[in-house]
Amino acid sequence: MAKWAVPQRYCRLELYQGRALLNKTNILSRLDANYKISFTTSETVSGAVNETNIEISGLTNETMLYLSTSFTEWIEGSIRNEIILDAGYDSLHGVIFDGDVIEAIPNLDQADYTIKLKCMSYYDKMNNEQFSFSFPGSVPATVIAGAFAAKLGFGFFSDVENEIFVDNYNYINKNIVQHLRNLANISGLDVYTSQNMVFIKTRGKPLRRYPVLRLDYRDFIGSPEPTPLGCNVRIKLNPSIATGQRVLVKSLKFKTLESVGYVIQSYSHSGDTKGSKWQTNITLIREDFYNADRKKRA
User: Which residue, among 257, 248, 261, has the nearest Cα to 224 in the 3D structure?
Assistant: First the structure.
């Protein structure tokens, strides 16, 4: 009888003093699955900043102090340390978060040091800096989103079926997150950032740059949960998924879910190197939902 092989979990966390350099000479710490690391990340097409919460136990005093003093608002010239979290399985792993440590709360009450970290992707660019954009007349929403990307120094990708024009866009002294949400509200499109890119796409439609993700009983943890807009699924931790990706679901319990395609609206990765949780939670929207809604309103 063949032995059932359980995939080996993979987890690697790197801490940098300030922004990561290509030669990686400023690495403060590399932590792997021998430490107790628990994390929850999130990403969505709503325009919100990608966030993660991390708790690490078994630290040395030196590493904990690096983390806990990474950034303090009132210290002049202080910097934010960068964290890169790579997780999954030995056969499939990848970076699920790359961002800045915003808040670090150490716990000195235990024999081994523990710290809780709140992190965000590109916090200063997305939240702290204020920008003004003014486009007189009628301008394509894709042109405005492209201007956001250029200001951030990000790449830009557009996948809009029918160009939407915005009249007299004039939004001053706002951070990029507010601009993204404002443009999404005005245009009715999805406008968001992911992996150093600004995306704009037709709401409820998948991005054609990604392959179709096919999910069945081998991927699921539990059963899919139908919702009025689509369904929610829990799967084995998969670092390769992306917001806006098209998904096909094959469910033994809910056969009706197989009749349409879905789009990833949001997802989160949750893991604990010393616990049972090692999963990806996905919110899926039916591809035909917004089409049906538009026809109803028409």
Answer: 257
